[in-house]
């Protein structure tokens, strides 16, 4: 995450992961939410930089980027995993 410390990255990751979980109607735990939020932020920041788009600094923008990245990761996971037959 750009411009935030490690402690704030964990907090933002948890918040972003939880928001993404609610948007994507997923059921994950706290640890997975933190991981999704942090990794989602890293992935989305990488994608944005590759496209030449640099979002403004600050924790609000990084939270938005993290939520978008976490949603993307959940979508890709579902795409790869496919639907389970119960």
From TrEMBL:
Membrane topology: Multi-pass membrane protein
Keyword Transcription regulation: no
Record's subcellular location: Cell membrane
Annotated TM spans: 6-23, 30-47, 59-80
Pfam families: Transgly_assoc
InterPro entries xref list: Transgly_assoc
One GO term describing the cellular component: plasma membrane
Official protein name in the record: Membrane protein
Organism (species): Methylopila turkensis
Organismal lineage: Bacteria, Pseudomonadati, Pseudomonadota, Alphaproteobacteria, Hyphomicrobiales
């Amino acid at each position: 995450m750009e411009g935030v410390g490690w402690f704030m990255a964990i907090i933002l990751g948890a918040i972003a992961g939880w928001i993404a979980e609610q948007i994507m109607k997923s059921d994950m735990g706290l640890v997975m939410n933190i991981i999704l939020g942090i990794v989602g932020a890293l992935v989305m920041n990488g994608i944005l930089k590759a496209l030449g788009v640099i979002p403004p600094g600050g924790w609000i923008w990084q939270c938005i980027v993290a939520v978008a990245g976490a949603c993307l990761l959940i979508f890709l996971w579902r795409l790869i995993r496919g639907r389970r037959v119960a």
